[in-house]
Specification:
Strand content: 5-15%
Radius of gyration: 13 Å
Strand order of the largest sheet: 1-2
Structural class: mainly alpha
Number of strands: 4
Largest sheet: 2 strands, parallel
Number of helices: 6
């Protein structure tokens, strides 16, 4: 698979993350069944500016390195569950199938 194809897959998942929810880099890779947290991070650092990049966090809830203040501002605006300056992963973690369940 070409890098551009993988990037498109990652960005499509990120676009689906609802306001106030997050996915970790590793969860995105797991959902796609390819790559890993580092590959997702590379996609986000190169192409993530046009998607809700702040909704992709480390597995421990840590915000995007170098952009913590802007990410924190956006999370507060979206009422994302936080624990200090990190996302509360137990409350905020999202998986793409969750939105399909709400249609039933």
């Amino acid at each position: 698979m070409a890098d551009e194809d993988y990037a498109e897959l990652v960005l499509t998942v990120v676009e689906r993350i609802p306001p106030g929810r997050v996915m970790s880099y590793g969860a995105i890779a797991e959902y796609l069944g390819q790559g890993g947290p580092r590959q997702v991070g590379a996609v986000m650092s190169h192409y993530g500016g046009g998607v809700p990049w702040h909704r992709v966090v480390a597995a421990n809830g840590r915000l995007v390195p170098g952009h913590e203040q802007e990410a924190l501002r956006r999370h507060r605006q979206e009422l994302t569950p936080l624990r200090g300056d990190k996302v509360d992963m137990r409350k905020a973690a999202w998986w793409p199938e969750e939105d399909a369940d709400q249609d039933n």
